[in-house]
Amino acid sequence: MKITAIDTCILAVPTPRPMALQYPRHQLVVAEISTDEGIKGLGYSLVFGGFGGESVHAYLETRLKPALLGEDPLFIERLWEKMFRADMGIKKQGVAGYALSALDIGLWDIAGKSAQLPLCKLWGAVRDRVPAYGSGGWSKYSIDDLVGEAEKYAAMGCRYYKMKIHHPDPRENRRRVEAVRKALGEKLRMMVDVNQRLDVLGNQRQAAALEDFDLVWYEEPVLADDIAACAEVAASIKIPVATGENNYTRYEFRELIERKAARYLMPDVCRAGGFSETLKIGHLAAAHQVAVTPHLIHELSIHVVGALPHRRAARPRHRARARRAREIPQPLELSDQRRAEGAGAERTAQVARPGLRMLDQRMPSPGRTAIFIGGETAPRSVRRFHESY
After folding, report:
1. 56, 103, 120, 173: which one has the fewest Cβ atoms less than 10 Å from its Cβ?
2. Is 380 domain-assigned?
3. What is the pLDDT of residue 258?
């Protein structure tokens, strides 16, 4: 089998309220990999916040795409190394990391379709059910928005809710967390996310103000670049630290583990290096008794979580409306602890469908598609939503 063509585009994905209060849109950088045997692989990277997709697309087109044309797509590890070493003067982070990840995901889509297996089984599945948590709680939400979102997740059967703590006053962040806790009671356990906004001292003060809520974790306390500071926070607060969504490759995650900077690692499959590297990160974490809870991209991350022995949860989030939603197939209705059967290739564009319920996800059935975005209807959907402005 040989790669004959790679077609790419950028999708604009407007977000629904209340998330639109914080981020009006996201971008998807999409790559469709064609082969001489007719099998096509679809990969993409989510560019959160809708800025920078053009740079990712340009790097993918000019530097990584030429490295794959004419190659056997089933030599995935060899091709990953070829892409990783294509520009030795550029670290595979940021723009380069997103681009590499999209192509790696597409290669694995081909492998899964070729084997007629969902990827979690191709990798040696551990489970057919994946626990999930509800995520949102952005800083621009009112208290009513926070409580309403948490109640919605609870009504869907979710047992965990994560919210942001972005206010400069630790007392205000406590007030917001307390409002959700009071409204939901014991229905949900909670996590909080700092999103890299504080220094070590600021995190120590903030965490101390939240200790009595029995939080599952305290996320991304400092700049992702400053692993030493993250380790200092982890050692000095009583809430377990989670981080990793803005870290890249097994090498950065190795440092996080060695420094004991987190009890929960959160690799993003669209940033960390695709499926290939996220699996390595997961196995590295398992060897050190560190839990893995992938960041975003639940329709991709579910396969990784399903194949890892030491995981925490997949992360659901309300996905956004596509520009021509009537052209998108109906989404799956997903509920808590549902078995891994029955997801089909026709659900290709669910990543951009409003109303998708994102609790525990089904894993795709054998012989249909390797990942949720695979299948023969996907390229047409992709082209329909090509960004035109």
Report:
1. 173
2. yes
3. 98
Residue 271 lies in a domain: no
In sequence order, what DSSP letters do the residues of 297-329 get, joined into one string? -HHHHHHHHHH-SSB--B---PPPPPTTGGGSP
What contacts 75, CB < 8 A, 6 or more positions away?
none
- Tokens 């504080």 found at: 198
> 127 in a domain, yes or no?
no
The residues assigned a catalytic role are 164, 295
Which residue stretches of the chain have pLDDT < 70? 310-389
| Domain encompassing residue 84 | 3-115+374-384
Whether 63 is in a domain gets the answer yes
Residue 62 CB burial class (10 angstroms; 0-12, 13-18, ≥19) = exposed
Full-model pTM: 0.82
State the pLDDT at residue 266.
Answer: 97
Return the pLDDT at 316.
56
Contacts of 287 (CB under 8 A, 6+ apart): none
3-class DSSP assignment, residue 235: helix
158 neighbors 186 (Cβ within 8 angstroms): no
The H or E element containing residue 132 is none
Q: 């060897």: which residue's tokens?
A: 287
pLDDT in tens, 172-215: 999 999 999 999 988 889 999 999 999 999 999 999 999 999 99
Burial class (CB in 10 A: 0-12, 13-18, 19+), 201: exposed
> For position 38, which CATH number holds?
3.30.390.10
Task: Map residue 373 onto helix, strand or coil.
Answer: coil
pLDDT of residue 106: 98
* Strands 264-265 and 291-292, bridge-based pairing: parallel
- DSSP letter at 169? S
